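=== Structural record ===
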Amino acid sequence: MNLKFDKISSLVFFILGLFIFLESRKISQSTLDTAIGPGVFPAVIGIALMVLSVVLFIETIKFKKTYKIIEKETEKESNDEESQSNKKVFFIIIISTFLYILLLEKIGYVITTFLFLFVAFQTLERSKWITSFIVAALFTGTIYVGFVKILGGNLPGLPF
């Protein structure tokens, strides 16, 4: 574990959670008389991300001595190439998350979520693109059907 990276990533995730929460407030409200609108789920995700990033930050400070001991042991074992690869994955996921937030209202839930999940799965495990495609499609479809058809909620529609 890298103490500095944990602190920085917790701050980045807090800002991302705040951004998600604020952007979720901009999603058009449901025209139906339902308590659950299209902005509720992203707002909950944003709040959860902020809370978890605060927990990570507090744990990083609280267990500073433990992290330093672990860091010294793993520093000898860690490879710079692996570290660069992890940073690349981190930034790809962060950038794709921001793009997801910005494009959700414009091109709709189904397309945006499918593309986001596909990119995320491919970033984490490149060799299995068919599996990534199927899982992203099934997840997106299941959430859409469950939220819109079963619960009667609204999600941003298709652009056409």
About this structure: The chain is about 80% helix and 0% strand.
